[in-house]
Amino acid sequence: MKWCWQKCTKNAFEKALVVDDEFHLIGMITVKDFQKAERKPNACKDEQGRLRVGAAVGAGAGNEERVDALVAAGVDVLLIDSSHGHSEGVLQRIRETRAKYPDLQIIGGNVATAAGARALAEAGCSAVKVGIGPGSICTTRIVTGVGVPQITGRC
């Protein structure tokens, strides 16, 4: 990494492509990546010094393959995301994922009640996402007429 930083600085490159031994592209490093690493050396990193990675999947059918691919790629935390997290489909997806990957950090949501949070925890969640329709592009509040911002969630 130090060699790459020196080359980028010397040649005024802003980006460097990262390839494996077979020259397949596996990533890209930017000058800002180096600057952030210097400014924030204690960022959340795994045992190999890589930034932790999270990903979200839905609870619907067909996401099993996506979960498997994410785990195989080394995802650190998985969000099983739904506009109504206190539903049997979400709970079942969490149970199945927990059974298959007992050590995976799983976040479930969205819920707005203590009963919903409890159900997610009992299904196997490591953490719970609270609030219904909190995002700026989320249409749940508009479509259903219901929304519970995080500050008013009763968990």
Automatic annotation (TrEMBL):
InterPro entries noted in UniProt: Aldolase_TIM, IMP_DH, IMP_DH/GMP_Rdtase_CS, IMP_DH_GMPRt
Cofactor(s) needed for function: K(+)
Keyword NAD recorded: yes
EC class (word): oxidoreductase
Coiled-coil ranges from the UniProt annotation: none
Any single Pfam family the record assigns to this protein: IMPDH
Gene Ontology terms for molecular function: IMP dehydrogenase activity
Catalytic reaction annotation: IMP + NAD(+) + H2O = XMP + NADH + H(+)
GO BP annotations listed: GMP biosynthetic process; GTP biosynthetic process
Entry-linked SMART domains: IMPDH
Family that this chain belongs to: Belongs to the IMPDH/GMPR family.
Protein name: Inosine 5'-monophosphate dehydrogenase
